[in-house]
Amino acid sequence: MMSPRYKVFVNRRMGRVLVSGKPEDEALINEGWRVIHEEDDWRAAFEFARDYADKHDYVLEWYIEEALLP
Prior knowledge:
Blueprint: E1 6-11, E2 16-20, E3 34-39, H1 42-56, E4 59-62, H2 64-67
């Protein structure tokens, strides 16, 4: 099984950042979200998203089940 590629999505209008490896979340692009970063490693994607959210005072979201993967 291939490991997911983790994307960092941002919605500036809503002030939200999302870390996701779920392919279905690419549909968010049609709802005003943009992909601003991609990583093979969840932690690296999360750290990028955390820094971005801190810098812009945005809400950071992620899927707990992805964070718990080995």
